[in-house]
Records
---
Amino acid sequence: MSIKAYDFYKDICGLQDEKFIQEIADITERRCLKKGEFVVRVGEALNDVCFLETGISRGYLLDASGRDITDCFSFRGGSAVMPFCQMELDIPSPMAIEMLEDGSIFCVPISGVIRLQKTYAEVTMFYNRLLIQALNEHWRLKQILNQYTAIQRYQWFLQEYPGLIDRVSNKHIASFIGMTPVTLSRLRRTLRENQEQK
């Protein structure tokens, strides 16, 4: 059963000002997306602030040869599903965000967020909280990619993204943690064999 937008913002996102919650809920649209559908593609404008309700999404960038490099996964309800440079209208997205499972997102027009920001201080506080969270996650990933061995990166992924190993393709996970799909498959097999021998 799906949650109402008001309850989502209050209970999942932790907003407190009830008048603000009601106003943002009133301009929120729930979108149901199928596996493989895009929230936004590279170069498209995303004129909404989007939050994951259900499902899994993957954000990716394109390298110089056009290969996609996984930048992030969203799988917890309340996670922002958007590039954080997108708080202006009609800005081309530097990344694509696709659904890896059927799911739903709550979308709020950026124009509405800008309007509410003039009245409610909680809008800026909430956005800053999301920015800090995203910055911390990306900084931590950079540290992991540069300081951990392949097996340590894999174990970190298992801990930080519980259950995703069985729901997301090896290709996307390998890209995210900086290794080839072959290396990831080998690691998984080796760890599985070690556990069976215990």
---
Amino acid sequence: MAIGLILGILFGVLAVAGFAFGGICLSKPAKDSSAEVKRRNGILSLAAGGVFVLLFVIFPFSFHTVEAGEVAVVKHLGEARGVRTAGTYFDFWMTETYDYYDAKVQDLSIVTQAYSKDAQTMDVEMTVQYQIDTSKVLDIANTYGSLDILNSRIESVAIDTMKNVMAGSTADEIIQERAELSMNITASTMEKIDESYYVNVRTVVLTDIGFTDAYEAAVEAQMIAEREKEAAITKAEQELEVAKRMAEARLEEAQGEADAQKTLAEAEAYSASVKIVELARTLGYAVTETVDETGSSFEIDWGNSGGEEVILSYLQYLEYLAKWNGELPDVVGDGTGIMITIPLPEGASGGQG
């Protein structure tokens, strides 16, 4: 274009100058012998001006520049015959025309409506990225005529594919599985836009999915209810954990008390056994001691003397003395007999003698 512009300005200036000079030469009347020379110069100037007009018409408009990232289809009298890549070319503009195609990656933005499986309306925004196959640009020109028509066809295919994919999922599934749906739409669109479209589809991206206000309000209410439910469950679990720990603590406390009672009982039993053995030895009974891995055990030969009952009675007497509060027995006489009341230690039961 720069070359054509420069040549156009140059030829235009020269044509105007030629016509102006020729007009001046022919317009002045001849008064001397140089009249014929001026007339001839005027005619030559007008002819030169005509030549420069012809050059202005032919050359400047016949230079065509194809920019980087473009490809051009050259049409001879309307018939696509050749392809031009980046560069500057000379083709006579009256017979050769250039149709330019963008060879860079195209971002086709689409806004349309779709419906989910559960009949929810969606406003969908999506972008289709594709690039034309420059080796097939003549086929694009002959089949579709222009890049705008090709864009329209690709848009229709992408919309139909997207609607079919969306119709197979509910609104909740669409919200939760948006990334997977986008990949499915990309795969399906690539499958539908095959080699007959002479383009390479890069990706199809769902940029926005908008549901109706009523549905979004229902979803928001459901999310709030779910959060409240989760909060209630969490609170109940926390309260249950606290109750469980309290119960475990009480159980451990009760177990400790039980173990203490058991230990005390075992100690008392052992103490009583030791007392019995020592008394038996003191009273002269034969005591046999057996030692094994579990400890010592004793066997007392009581014979037929009833010594066991005597020792047990004696132990009860010692226990009574340990618990006696020091009060003397009450003696009551009525002339016929004597009644003695023996005070019992606290917690004991007894009678009169």
---
Amino acid sequence: MSGKILFQCDYNEGAHSKVLERLIATNMEQTVGYGEDPYCSAAAAKIREKCGNEDLAVHFLVGGTQTNMTVIDAALRSHQGVLCAHTGHINVHETGAVEAYGHKVLGLPSGDGKITAAQVEAAYWSHVNNDSFEHTVQPKMVYISHPTELGTIYSKDELTALSKVCRERGFYLFMDGARLGYALAAPDNDLTMADIAELCDVFYIGGTKVGALFGEAVVISNAELKQDFRYHIKQKGGMLAKGRLLGLQFDALFTDGLYEEIAAHAISLAEKLRAAFDAKGYPYLVPNRTNQIFVILPDADLDKLSEKFGFCYDSRVDETHSAVRFCTSWATKEENLKALTDALKEL
């Protein structure tokens, strides 16, 4: 990949300059550890304000996989599992981390990365109506990503319906928000962070992919899940001794609208790239309006593009076409995007 312009993912670069400035400016300060410092408290307060709920518990962890396995293991008993789309991150991209802690991931079919309230309802009845239900894993949590692994997002109506069925059937609803900023900035989004905090039992705000060096902020509304959560963070290796490094980054991201600003930048450039693909007549594996674009190109065109640009292979479509993913991010440069769109015009 040396010398290529990378559109593989949204964490190719380090961190936003304002995040780095805060880290440098406070580098020699002395604070207590393990997330009990003033910066973590300040960041948590800003997140609660953004969510419109002062009763939320906010915790900072290092990475997405660690966050997913910690939240899920904290919520579930040993005989319980988690429902998700068969393409869900915990099912395909985390090396069985959730299952390594004893909780089966129960994949549901999905063509667009999302699952529906009707699917969750059906999964509930399929379990309770099974004469041998105690011989099978009990579904107890629903895991969704916003955006999904395919870049699609949930509407407010869809999330409301999922929340309703989860509460009626006794499931926890957990949203993976590793790329949440990009979902909220998408042109077709109608959810706010306050909506998500109200409708989900627990969700997290991604920093790693949205301007931070590393880090995710777990936001818990359900009182059952709040209890003893720090024990679970510690046990899973997620309690950073220099916890203020996480708090400082989220404090910077949630100051003066920086999180929204940099996510909007990624979406703006993704729209330009999407227009360039449209102009060439390339179809999409799954249409979306977020920063992940899954597009189907002739292999010959991909070979030419790969000489100068990095992108992610997704799947073989037919003998001469492949689906690939191009990502924009908070750090994508206008000139790099132009280089790519110019190269597309020349194909």
---
Amino acid sequence: MKIVEVIFSLMPGGVERFTVDLANELSKNNEVYLLTLQADEQNRDGSFFFKDELSSRVSHIHIGMKRARTMKGQLKVANTIAEINPDIVHYQSSSSLRHSFFALYSLSFKYRTFITIHSDLKGGYDKGLFRFVCNTLGIIHKVTFVCLSQRNYMDFVEYYPQLNIRHIDNGRSPLKQTNLYELVCREMNGFRTDSQTRLFIHAARCCPAKNQKLLIDSFNELIEEGYNISLVVIGIGYDTEDGAKLKEISNDRIHFLGLKENVGDYMLNSDLFCLSSLYEGMPITLLESKSAGIPAVSTPVCGAVDLIKNGVDGVISDDFTIVSYKNAIVKSLEIYNELNSNIAREKGKDYYSIARCAKQYIECFNSND
């Protein structure tokens, strides 16, 4: 099967991480092309962050569009896909739709077309171009939509019952130690005040959707209240104005490490993972924390409510308030040994593996729906 994966860029992020993993896995038995649409060819903005992780089996084509609405760029996307002449065209994220809408509309009648949803309805999928796609190509079933968590799927089916919507749980390749693991181990231990410190990790870019203000405010207050905890924050965007403000208000036990290629080493040296998002689809970082065998504390977003057994292998806050999120963190500390023991028994199971995920995509691509 000849498959084209279309994505905005390969910059650090969950969508990009998933797309590279999926393309690599699909390429084991299929001819796979990965189209990146708009990116800095010199990688000054990290747009090719994951490029080196692409398998040699995957053909990477960079379109290099300057703006989404230039007809020249739109035609280049459509012509590139047409030249490949694939069996499947698979769009990832709303950004890729904006930069390839001409290809989507001109080619969906010729090639089987799929769009994977990477967030919930509040995350930009109920407005503008996406709504237009749903109410045109979606209604006549020229596009199949894929949701990455059960909650997300149920929400979309309720809101768009006339569309062809499938549910495939998100997947992730297993986390592996790198040759920097021992250095990271020493670095992370340096963030503990003593042997009893619980070390939390948050891995996400700085942006409103990730709701880091809630995260920082909660940890600031708990540290001031005497809880023996530290927080490590990994990701891009903390050199922006909003990121600088977060750093400025953060307690000295909150450590911003910037972008890291070996996030797995940091996960594997943490006690708990924390997610503070306002909305998600199925967060890759939650899958990574499960793969690392560390409990998670999360707001009640899509994906988290599917993946975490509340009070068993992680804790989900009741809502998005600071009181509720603090209570979730405190509960995770109180029952940490139980959480840690329970999630350790889950480690190594492959329900959320990228191999299983890719197999379900192939079944979806081959279906007659």
